[in-house]
Amino acid sequence: MSLIKGEVRFRRCVSGETLGSDDGFIRKLKEKIPRLKEEFNVKNCNVILVFCPVVSRSGTNIEAALKKLQTLSGTVD
To answer: Which superkingdom heads the taxonomic lineage of this protein's source (predicted)?
Structure first.
């Protein structure tokens, strides 16, 4: 049973190699939130899901993900 009413639109932001784990995570979310829809225009989405795999130094990986997110969300007025 989903507690969320209406459609939820999300934008995926992947920083680094996830080996498909982002697809698996989103698939599981869609099982719990059937009205979850991927949106490619940031202006039309409700949430941005950021996937940031840490492969070496966490600070470097997280910083790169934050820069990518800022670039992506910076297009929103």
So the answer is: Eukaryota
| CA 73 to chain centroid | 12
CB atoms within 10 A of CB 11: 20
Interior/surface letters 26-60, b for 16+ CB within 10 angstroms, e for the rest: beeeeeeeeebeebeeeeebeeeebbbeeeeeeee
Q: List helix spans (H) across the chain.
A: 21-32, 58-73
